[in-house]
Amino acid sequence: xxxxxxxxxxxxxxxxxxxxxxxxxxxxxxxxxxxxxxxxxxxxxxxxxxxxxxxxxxxxxxxxxxxxxxxxxxxxxxxxxxxxxxxxxxxxxxxxxxxxxxxxxxxxxxxxxxxxxxxxxxxxxxxxxxxxxxxxxxxxxxxxxxxxxxxxxxxxxxxxxxxxxxxxxxxxxxxxxxxxxxxxxxxxxxxxxxxxxxxxxxxxxxxxxxxxxxxxxxxxxxxxxxxxxxxxxxxxxxxxxxxxxxxxxxxxxxxxxxxxxxxxxxxxxxxxxxxxxxxxxxxxxxxxxxxxxxxxxxxxxxxxxxxxxxxxxxxxxxxxxxxxxxxxxxxxxxxxxxxxxxxxxxxxxxxxxxxxxxxxxxxxxxxxxxxxxxxxxxxxxxxxxxxxxxxxxxxxxxxxxxxxxxxxxxxxxxxxxxxxxxxxxxxxxxxxxxxxx
Length: 437
Known about the structure:
Blueprint: H1 16-19, E1 39-40, E2 44-45, E3 49-50, E4 63-66, E5 76-80, E6 86-89, E7 95-99, E8 114-125, E9 128-137, E10 142-148, E11 157-159, H2 173-177, E12 182-189, E13 196-202, E14 207-216, E15 220-230, E16 235-236, E17 242-243, E18 255-261, E19 266-271, E20 275-280, E21 288-292, E22 300-303, E23 308-311, E24 326-333, E25 339-345, E26 350-355, E27 364-370, E28 386-389, E29 401-406, E30 420-427, H3 428-436
Parallel strand pairs: 1-27
Antiparallel strand pairs: 2-30, 3-30, 4-5, 5-6, 6-7, 8-9, 9-10, 10-11, 12-13, 13-14, 14-15, 16-17, 18-19, 19-20, 20-21, 22-23, 24-25, 25-26, 26-27, 28-29, 29-30
């Protein structure tokens, strides 16, 4: 999770193309209190992770769901645990593998830190086609790749990262140690060419890079940078003022949650303190703001003593459905091109759904909460990452699965002195039924 951010003293100049994106009017007026959102409860949860020395600095962040085509009941959830690397779970939320983040040769260098994860199905390698998990190693400013083989002794994931893979954004180790590195991640396969890509955002910056995945010798995977795009960091408000989200000095409003709709090749990117952008996944079109966070346009001043932002009066230019940070974007596909772009509204621990179809301009379709199933199985609060798969997954989840991170897990062991995080597994069929009520 990201902390409070400070208002920059000088607004950065925007390029001509991005300047044209300035919003000319406030969001719809905030009317009477909306109807309560429908709620769903998790069916199970993964073991608690603890971000302390005793817990191996494990911090749940972002999940992906891999469907075992030959035996859907033996599908997997692959998730990041930051400095603790990757965790792999079965459909009962039991851990089946733990992969540590790579160590560094110099103890003074930033350690490996896995931030986000996504999947590529049927990637052509020199050794044949394979399903792979891709993760952003924020600590080393690189992508890492893992071949998925459900029946492999010792665990289903095997590291197949090309050792020659270069930093995504940094020019050397000194820059890497500053940690303005690979952060958010979404994979994408171009249906016209069959080429696979990763879109990677940069921590504390507005940059998004498009990387083409490349097969190298020995069944390894590398990448080459195609192009980058910078989202705006300052915005012209309807009252004529220029606004930037409050941030620590030197930081810009970053992107983390991203997802690509494979049917039309559109990227949805959550700029955490701004809103959700839509643009072509090849980064060749000007971004459009689908929705804004409620805090959009609210002035703030960063207090170095408290390391928090003091917010000013709300001018009323923000949205009404999502609260900063906007995170965990994922795609809920349905037959005939229907479905939703799902986003985590971290600020109020809800989830928002937007129409997937471009003809409907990604209009807001509603939202929901994931609440406690019992005293020992809590819901999801301040969710960082989410993944959804609308496909049969054996008898456990015959109508699909939603996995959400819980940023404030209630530890089943009753250890209230240690903060913990985990992932909640939600029956997608139950969620769809609640949304249709």
